[in-house]
Amino acid sequence: MKGKLSVIGFGPGSFEHMTQAAKEAIMESEVIIGYNTYVDLIRGLLSGQHIVRTGMTEEVSRAQEAVRQAQAGRKVAVISSGDAGVYGMAGLVYEVLMEQGWRRDTGVNVEVIPGISAINSTGSLLGAPIMHDACTISLSDHLTPWDLIIRRVEAAAAADFVIALYNPRSGRRTRQIVETRSVLLRYRSPQTPVGIVKSAYRDREEIAITTLERMLEHDIGMLTTVIIGNSATVVYDGLMITPRGYQRKYTLGAD
Length: 255
Ligand code: SAH
Description:
Blueprint: E1 4-9, H1 20-28, E2 31-35, H2 36-41, E3 50-54, H3 59-71, E4 75-80, H4 90-99, E5 109-113, H5 118-126, E6 127-128, E7 134-138, H6 146-158, E8 162-166, H7 175-187, E9 193-198, E10 206-211, E11 224-228, E12 234-236, E13 239-241, H8 246-249
Helix pairs in contact: 3-4, 6-7
S-adenosyl-L-homocysteine binds next to helix 5 and strand 11.
């Protein structure tokens, strides 16, 4: 009896935006492991699975427990919001397995099921801000040194990437978004469009479009993704749009 470990990204939080593969893997699992809030978000799919709920800062023990349960022969689902491979549980599960010398052919079966990451879910609510070369940067310096993060912010700013800022701010971490904005202002106009989305596709969703100059006047927290436009991004009728360049190449108004 060989266990199975599925690391599942369930998307932004609504059922409609979860893949069929993610739903099936959750329904077929015997054990569900995840952060409390996430277990609540997928409650509708549960039918007697054993649930291991853990707090926000217990990722490591969560991953270890998942590996242990799968090695005991169970079908285990580790759930992450968005995509599990984007600041999620997928990499950590593999780190725990590598540490044990796990091999794909002899060890437990592992699969990562993709989900809609915040850059995509929040982007869709803002209009079409991504459209062109873009990157994600997490402002959490819990695991990554701040000087590396801010260097990446600067490189992305200089290279005119559209930037999706994950983990922009928390109760204790308030300085990072302020410094990030200062660096961005060295490369981009204060009028650069900025989209701020809280709890995309969840209860209490909030969407705001502002500018680099005024972005800090808005409520930014743990459930927020901040999208910084590039030099071509515009705001049109309350939407944030990054033209890809079709207008330069074709005359869009003509037949
Ligand atoms: N694996 C997740 C990211 C986890 S890091 C993904 O792929 O989306 C947590 C950060 O993700 C949050 O601080 C926020 O910046 C972003 N995020 C995740 N879900 C979100 C949602 N529904 N709405 C807005 N931002 C979200």
